[in-house]
Design goal:
Blueprint lengths: L1 E4 L2 E4 L18 H10 L5 E5 L7 H5 L21 H8 L34 H11 L9 E5 L2 H6 L7 H22 L4 E5 L8 H7 L7 H21 L7 E5 L1 H10 L8 E5 L1 E2 L4 E2 L11 E3 L7 H13 L8
Parallel strand pairs: 3-4, 4-5, 5-6, 7-10
Antiparallel strand pairs: 1-2, 1-6, 8-9
Helix pairs in contact: 3-10, 6-8, 9-10
GO molecular function, one term: lipase activity
Protein name: Phospholipase/lecithinase/hemolysin
InterPro entries: GDSL, GDSL_Est/Lipase, Lipase_GDSL_AS, SGNH_hydro_sf
Length: about 325
């Protein structure tokens, strides 16, 4: 985990519950306040990102009249809970979708499948953060935790480009991540976590493309681009004007890679194919619902529910204590 605390950078790589107010106020006892503070260190968890964190906003984007079918879990692009679900559970918080692409709710998750750091559609990072700010009177809560987990689609988009076009594009994407983190800081946020992007070059989609004639080096290229993007985000975050905000970068890239490289220890028998074919809404020829736990990948891009759990539990363990108020 990499910590940036009160304007300083340390690299290790590894709110009280609001009292409901109607027409009259209410007050918690000292014991209740202590218990609430200990069980919920942050008042809320706000998430900005893509399909690795989308807990249901994709339905609003696609104007779906029904939920995603089984084996999709609760409108997530996987067969189980996502990394952010495990982070939320560890903090005794919820991470419901904001549904801002349709009729916005009080949900705290603005991540949308397909979202990019540097793009201008209404599913992308600028729009996610702008929508949050608009809905929250241009203020970020000093008691909440803000989590950014985005960049995989930006990396994937550059897999067919050559240098320096691909790295220039990822520089711009990293700039957007840093700029949106700075906006949260400037609007009052005191607790921010940024997750590094897992190795996109190891996904079944890119591995299959690398097996095609003339594309033998694509997997390594995309892996290198993933490392490059993460390093640029790290660099640009270290240059922000953080004041007394605590900004923490958690190395989910390495967490995911360690699990992948030791797959057998976790019971995985397949790390190169997706169990499910999302485009066709059917299982692949080599998998079935009963075999999901054997597969590292849910489909040709996204981790399986088991993989999300393994990564999510480790990420949750690295969430820092709140910044001192």
């Amino acid at each position: 985990m990499m910590n940036m605390v009160k304007g300083t950078w340390k690299q290790t790589f590894l709110a009280p519950l609001a009292c409901a107010i109607a027409l009259s106020g209410c007050q918690l006892s000292d014991d209740e306040e202590k218990e609430t503070s200990e069980s919920r260190p942050f008042s809320a968890l706000y998430v900005f990102g893509d399909s690795l964190s989308d807990t249901g906003n994709i339905g609003g984007y696609l104007s779906l009249e029904t939920d995603l079918p089984s084996p999709f879990y609760d409108n997530r692009i996987s067969n189980g809970k996502l990394i952010v679900d495990y982070v939320a559970e560890s903090l005794n918080l919820e991470v419901e979708p904001s549904l801002y692409l349709g009729e916005i709710t009080d949900g705290t998750n603005y991540a949308v499948a397909g979202g990019q750091a540097d793009a201008d559609q209404n599913i992308d990072l600028d729009f996610q953060v702008d929508t949050y700010m608009e809905y929250h009177s241009e203020e970020a809560s000093p008691k909440a935790l803000y989590l950014f987990f985005i960049g995989g689609n930006d990396i994937l988009e550059q897999r067919g480009e050559t240098s320096p076009n691909n790295t220039n594009a990822l520089n711009l994407a990293a700039d957007k991540v840093a700029a949106n983190v700075q906006e949260v800081i400037d609007k009052g946020g005191k607790n921010i976590v940024v997750l590094t992007v897992p190795d996109v070059g190891k996904t079944p989609k890119v591995l299959k493309e690398s097996a095609e004639p003339g594309q033998e080096g694509r997997s390594q290229l995309v892996s290198d681009l993933t490392v490059y993007f993460n390093s640029q985000v790290e660099l640009k975050l270290s240059q922000l004007n953080m004041g007394d905000t605590k900004v923490t970068m958690i190395n989910s890239y390495q967490i995911a890679l360690d699990i992948l490289n030791n797959a057998a220890d976790y019971g995985f028998t397949n790390t190169t194919d997706g169990c499910y074919v999302t485009e066709d809404l059917e299982f692949s020829d080599i998998c079935s619902e009963e075999q999901f736990d054997n597969f590292y990948y849910f489909d040709n891009i996204h981790p399986s529910g088991k993989t999300h759990r393994l990564i999510g539990e480790k990420v949750a363990a690295e969430i820092p204590d709140p910044a001192e108020s």
